Batch of 4 targets.
Target 1
Amino acid sequence: MNPTEIKKFYDEKGYVAINGFLSKDQVEELTSQTDRFIKEVIPAIPAEEVYYENKLDQSTLKQIQHMHDFDPWFNNLANSKEVMGLAELLLGGKAVLKNTQYFNKIPYQGKETPAHQDGYYFMIMPQVALTMWLSLGDADAENGAVCYIPGSHKKGMREHGKTALLGFSQGVTDWSDEDSEAEVQMKAGAGDILVHHSLTIHRANSNNSNRDRRAIGFIFYGSDVVIDEKAHAEYKKKLDTDLSKQGKI
């Protein structure tokens, strides 16, 4: 798809997939830099930025937050013309980088991702924001490919409630058979990128394979977005406290 087609599809469906966003060599470099970050940078960053299924077992690493704040390589990647340019195309104007994340569903242990809208966590007005999901390897039905509900970004915010899932503390509470029938599973290969609107409902199954399901995520807001800083700070404080008690951070 050309840029016009990409934008049109995103506006209509609330998500878009771009195959081959990174070349094979670029994927290898990103994978190498991610492994370096895990080995060398994680020990020096705040514990609340790193989520484990079991904090005592480093092989259960699930999520890393704000990688661009702690490492220049990832800061350069997030602000590159390719990544930033795509964000600005889809947001329709200046984009502001808010997060660079690492995600993994580890083999046989990676749990499901509950249906949710990222905008519920963002606490922003207006909901002019998006999330990118850049795959480091194959993502499919067996290891937890992302599923979207097309057009759900046009229907406002759904009710959310607390979940027990690490990294996704809130989920849609009124999931229906209609939602199940409407959802589309997005398989991805290494170097493919998925992008979705902050109001697009999405979820993923657990990892029932012997393969990791690794990805780098980016979150961008529109430049005119206003954040409810007080509510966001209170939510983050409570979340960190809960995760610490559970031995996840």
Target 2
Amino acid sequence: MGDFDWKKAVNTIAPSLAKALAPELGLAGIAIRAIGQAFGMPDATEQQVSEAIAKATPADLLAIKQADQQFEKDMAAIGVDLAKIAAEDRANARDREIKTGDTWTPRILAAVVVIGYLSVQWYILSHIVPQEMREIVLRSMGTLDMALGLVLGYYFGSSAGSARKDVVIGHLSTEQ
């Protein structure tokens, strides 16, 4: 079970709670508490939530979905728009890059991530990973998978952004 990614499972079941788990939003504790409450554990830790999701029954998954819907209502009631916060965070990062004129740092970081990803992939495919090292190698691979996705999203855009762009273009073309 060492390679189970509970956050990906939450993203599938409860997308709003999954967004809140993003470190840059500062809402991870609230999201973990909401998920824990769905399991009847209001003071659950991240580890306990991870273990509970790994063993979740269909009834548990329904409770998480309901917690997600309640979370959306609660956030809307206090005026918190998770998508807007995430978009502002990305805009601030891009504005910083434009203002500083720093074009090398993102390129270097992207190169390190891509080389690291390819290196770990090569190692996994060309070596027998010792049993005691599998957990750390798979954890590293998961981190690099995510980092590679961020690099690709940075340089080529995200599918969510592309989908929104397509909708806007579609609306604009029908208005003309």
Target 3
Amino acid sequence: MNFEGCKFWREKLEENPQIKERSEEKEGRTAHNPEFTVENISMVEHGMFSSCFSLCSCFLRERKSTHGTVLPKDVSSRMDSVSSSEVNFSSERIPPSPAPVMASPRYTPHTPRSTHFSERVPPSPARAMASPRNISPSPKFSMAQVPKLTRLGSLHLNFSQVAQATQNFSPSMRIGRGAFGVVYKGYLEDGQVVAIKRAKGDHFMDHNAQFSREVELLSKIDHQNLVKLLGFLDKGDERLIITEYVPNGTLRSHLDGDHYPILNFSQRIAIAIDVAHGLTYLHTYSAERQIIHRDVKPSNILLTENMRAKVADFGFARLGADSEQSQVHTAVKGTVGYLDPEYMRTHRLTAKSDVYSFGILLLEILTGRRPVELKRPTNERVTLIWVFEKLEEGNVLELVDPRIEEAVDGEVLVPFFELAIHCAAPVRADRPDMKSVVERLWGIRVEYNRRQGRGSRA
């Protein structure tokens, strides 16, 4: 590998072979940060990222305080109807992929394999991005605004209509749980199917800021790889967010084997590209500010009937630093196993924190394994060091999810894993931005198609 993050791993592993021993000793401990609640954050498996704390010299530096702009915690008015926002966007495509990013010869697997597939990679839809220069961020989102949606039609519903759509919030209509609350499937009178996120009662105050933040951000964005806001309701102790319904479940459920057939390799590449496009849009939202998701993980990736991916759950998301700052100082939010170790240490948030989470997501897509698996023996857990060592040994095929029936050429797998490690580099300065990640993923896909004899058509 030819990037600084992996040079760092190699040099430190050679100088300090005891690092792996220290990493193993730390595994199994739980997080003691008061921000890590049972609802939002699972138990810590230090084997996934404790190596970052041991390896990275930047963790020895003193924490410095900075200040950043935060979103308003409440809203100025409340309504007994669902409203939605509209923004005019101009189309802008992400630049075409450069030449494929090929693996270093030293990482070529001992026995690369290739197989011709009868199934074509799903065509990627056009990536219409909002022009970052043409969107000015709203200083404060007003619940009193009721512009219309031109895409799917405005939703103006009262609480009784929402309750009817979900059969009075029946458990049989429950389809998931997000950072904001429980998610239900709803059938409107006109036949439209929607997803409804609800927080109520003792969770009301806890989710106050998350509700405002999610509505604020969802009202601003418009991209096919991000879940669309259809409306919201804020009355008394009821707060609801209504979004488009994405029918094929979460990426988490597919990786866990809850759906059949198992995702094939071409679908996994397409999903990775879709998620990368969605994050690129957020990170280039405007010239002045970025949107940082802060909780990129498989359970927040929804799949359509055509297996296209959409990023969801913006309850932890926030606006990034303005043009005069490089980072925002904020409390740590997210899910253990996907959290940027540098963000955890310093509380300084940048878009590179999403890049780290995306790197862990890529490893899950490729291996089919979670970053936190406390029930497995230490030597069977997927860690960054383990992945790196397998690449060094030339055993890349041992890393791939064994449930994938296709045999994939090692020359395609190596740059895929290299990109994942690059994104999850312990030092955020060594990580790429999401725009370059998209370009490298397209390069990998082009090479995959070429080796399967399908040509380079997307």
Target 4
Amino acid sequence: MNYFNHGWGMGFGWLVPLLIIGLIFYFLQDKKKEKSSAQEILDKRYASGGISKEEYEEKSRSLREHE
């Protein structure tokens, strides 16, 4: 009787659970990456020169009122 592998096959049985755990962590982190708030987007547009100071202040005020 050969009890050395215990049904795991060639000693690589630990690889499957490790891959599954790795994939779970990968997909959970991916959802957290790209969540920018409206204020952050507005700040970036103003910093890059995409909108004027007046537009920035008006839109920022509007965002604060609708929170």
